[in-house]
Amino acid sequence: MTKTVSIKKVFSGGLVIVAVGVLVVATHAMRPDQSNAKGWGLPSSQAAIKYSFAPVVKQALPAVVNVYVRTRTRRTKRRNRLSRDPFFRRFFGDSFGVPKERIESSLGSGVIIDARGIVVTNFHVIEGATGDQIKIAMANRKEYQADIILKDKKTDLAVVKIRSDGETFPFLKIANSDNLEVGDLVLAMGNPFGVGQTVTSGIVSALARTGIGGGDAQYFIQTDAAINPGNSGGALIDMNGDLVGINTAIFSKSGGSLGIGFAIPSNMVSLVVNSARNGRSVQRPWFGGNVKKVTPAISEGLQLPKPTGVYINSLGDESPARDAGLRVGDVILSVNSHAITDAKSFRYQFSIKGTGGRAKLKIWRNGRKLTKAVSLIIAPEVPARNEMRVRGNNPFSGALVANLSPALAEEISMSDQSGVVIVGLGRRSFAKRIGLARKDILLQINGTEIESVADLADTLRERQRSWRFTIKRGDNVLSMSLGR
Question: For residue 100, what pLDDT is reported?
Answer without folding.
Answer: 56
